[in-house]
Give the backbone structure.
Amino acid sequence: MIRKYLTSQHKDIIQLLSLTLGKNNAWLFANDNYQLNKDEIQKLNVLIKNRANGVPFAYLSGAKGFYHLDFKVTTDTLIPRPETELLIDIALNLFTDNKEPYNILDLGTGSGIIAITLADKNPHWQVSATDFSQYALEVAKKNSTNDINFQQGSWFDAVPKQRFDLIISNPPYIKENDPHLLKLKHEPISALVSGKDGLDDIRLIIKRAHQHINKRGYLLLEHGYDQQEEIISLLQEKFSYIKTFKDYNFKNRAILSRLK
């Protein structure tokens, strides 16, 4: 019976039961005498085993909420995180004239959460999104309900000679051999790690960004909590109006700058 599982110590058992049966939490508790059939028991046991082995629930369910939308996710993409919602808030508050068709680029889009959320909030914006991984782009395209220009390639190689009013990116920024990677072993390492200090990709983006930003345009980056000072130093040659932001856990998380 469902009741037996509800009183167990299995991790996320309520969510796993909901996923197995296609029922919400209220139904589970209202029907706790329901007897699972053989196929349902087999499916649930597989989910319980995978969850116990550390597979994130988002990969088991194939979906994760971000901002005001739900997104498909696979092991080819990072799982959307609440910290990245900060980038959406910054971008939406950046342009005062909401009727202008601003040209936006999301570098390293993954499952498409940034590009798709911005395009959904401002359908008149011209949004482009790039990723090195064709598999990630396939997920992003499935998530998109707007007219977004998806391009495959490594960073700016995907958008040669194009310029934008805002370039926004949540690039890899974790250091090699960082102990936190043990908790992220099921997510794509290439989307997480960027050299010995975690800044290899950010350095590359900053070095080339000025060639792809319109006059007085902006660059917005997510970064690690301990990388802010180094990134500010990297930005100062080509950028001004450097503004820093803390995430909802009060950790340094994002930097906005304007092309000089």
User: Anything to note?
Assistant: The first strand starts at residue 63 and ends at 66.
